[in-house]
Amino acid sequence: MKIKDGFMLRQFGENYIVVAVGDDAEDFNKLITLNTVGAFIYNLMENDVTYEEIVSAVLDKYEADRKTVENDINKFLADGKKAGLIDG
Question: What is the pTM of this model?
C-alpha cells in the first residue's frame, strides 16, 4: 500500500493537511486534515509498505495497545481509500 502520486503532506503549525499537486490539483477538491499519528502513517506510506509494517512502526513510535493502533490504521486506510489517496 502507498500514497498515490500527486499528493503532498504539509504542516501548518500543529496541523497537517494533505494537498493535491500538479494535474491532480484540478480534479481533487477535498481538504484532508490529519493528526500527528495520521501524518506519521502518511509518511510511512510514501513508500510501498505492508499493513503489518505500518502497525509495527506505529506500535514502536506511540504507546498504545495493538487493538487501538489497528483501529486507527483501519480508519486511516478506509478514509484514505474513499478519498482516492491510497493505491493498493
Answer: 0.89
CA angle 15, 39, 50 (to 5 degrees): 170
**Residue 52 CB neighbour total at 10 angstroms:** 8
| pLDDT over 60 at 81, yes or no | yes
Is residue 19 very low, low, confident or very high in pLDDT (cuts 50, 70, 90)?
Answer: confident
* Total domains in the fold of the chain: 1
CB neighbours of 81 closer than 8 A, spacing ≥ 6?
A: none
**In which domain, by residue range, is 70 found?**
2-87
Q: Which of 45, 48, 40, 46 is nearest to 16 (CA)?
A: 40
